[in-house]
Automatic annotation (TrEMBL):
Domain of life: Bacteria
The ABC transmembrane type-1 domain, residue ranges: 97-310
UniProt-listed InterPro entries: ABC_transporter_permease, MetI-like, MetI-like_sf
Major location category of this protein: membrane
Membrane topology: Multi-pass membrane protein
Family, similarity comment: Belongs to the binding-protein-dependent transport system permease family.
Taxon lineage: Bacteria, Bacillati, Actinomycetota, Actinomycetes, Kitasatosporales
Full protein name: Multiple sugar transport system permease protein
Localisation: Cell membrane
Ranges of compositional bias, category Polar residues: 1-10
UniProt-listed Pfam families: BPD_transp_1 (PF00528)
Spans traversing the lipid bilayer: 39-58, 101-122, 134-155, 184-206, 237-256, 292-313
Length: 319
């Protein structure tokens, strides 16, 4: 019997295609893991883009086409420039723009300066700062309609709070919302109280980010409170101030809720008729949607032009 021998046959090679390079497999697995990790983020992003497109971009594009169309007896036809011509020849158009610009100027005088002053005062306090921040922001948390109706009660000429205060100091009572000379100022006061909380907290956060060494150096130079605000506080918060200035101008030129609820929109002798309220009248009182879209397009162009000029001036100042 012969002794068993080891086989000298070489193992047959594995068929091609059964093994892939390890680098390619790891790259694919890494891609799958990254895709799974980011799929929820992409889903939220796509949803936000779709919502923004549907509720923001589509109405803007639709308004642009509607501004050059006219609908009569259920038929929509192109009207060319007739809607814009009708809007520019309407006497209420120029009155609405005057009132809107007046509201914007008064709102900047009060609504831009008052929150900054309150923020400076809060920043100097060392006790109960959190409670005071809550107290300042409280009007923003209230529903706008409730806040406006509260001020409508305050402005009542018979039993309103403001006339009671005037009576205590032996001052004549005022027809706040019924007098054309005081109606717009009354609307501005209510709007300032309702919206100043957010701006105040933004200013306060910016103030707390200013290094204390700058104030110490100013004190060593003999600077008082006003000089420290002018030479330290304002330069250090210039970016926030300019940004909120732009946002407030855009917001005030679109004012609608306050005059609509306080003075029924137009006010005495049309003293509180704003551009947005005139758009509302065209669309829902006169059923003239083409003119409403045309006036909205004019407002859009004005705000876009102002924003472009502001951005250009900001870049020039930075350079």
């Amino acid at each position: 019997m012969s002794a068993p021998t080891l086989s000298t046959r070489k193992p047959s090679p594995a068929p091609r295609g059964h093994h892939r390079p390890a680098g390619r497999d790891s790259a694919r697995e890494e891609f799958v893991r990254a895709l799974r990790r980011n799929i929820s983020a992409h889903g939220f992003l796509i949803g936000a883009v779709l919502c923004f497109s549907f509720f923001s971009w589509y109405p803007m594009v639709r308004e642009f086409f509607l501004a050059f169309q006219k609908t009569e007896d259920g038929r929509t036809t192109w009207a060319g420039w007739s809607n814009l011509s009708y809007v520019f020849n309407d006497p209420a158009f120029w009155q609405a723009w005057r009132n809107t610009l007046l509201f914007t100027v008064l709102a900047l005088v009060l609504g831009f300066a008052v929150p900054f002053v309150i923020a400076v005062v809060l920043n100097e306090l060392r006790h109960a700062q959190g409670y005071l921040r809550l107290l300042v922001y409280l009007p923003v948390m209230l529903p706008p309609v409730a806040s406006v109706l509260l001020f409508k009660y305050f402005y009542d000429p018979g039993y309103g709070l403001f006339n009671r205060i005037f009576e205590f100091f032996h001052l004549p009572a005022q027809q706040w919302l019924q007098d054309p000379d005081t109606s717009m100022l009354s609307v501005v006061i209510a709007a300032t109280w309702m919206n100043m909380g957010g701006a105040t907290l933004i200013y306060l956060a910016a103030l707390q980010g200013i290094p204390g060494e700058l104030y110490e150096a100013a004190e060593l130079d003999g600077a008082g409170l006003l000089r420290k605000i002018w030479h330290v506080t304002i330069p250090q918060t210039r970016l926030i101030l300019s940004l909120l200035l732009l946002m407030q101008i855009i917001a005030t030129m679109q004012v609608f809720t306050e005059p609509f609820l306080l003075t029924n929109g137009a006010g005495p002798e049309g003293s509180t008729t704003t551009v947005v309220y005139l758009i509302y009248q065209y669309a829902f009182n006169f059923n003239n949607y083409g003119s409403a879209a045309a006036l909205g397009l004019v407002l859009l162009v004005v705000l876009a032009g102002f924003s472009a000029v502001y951005v250009r001036l900001s870049r020039s100042s930075e350079d």
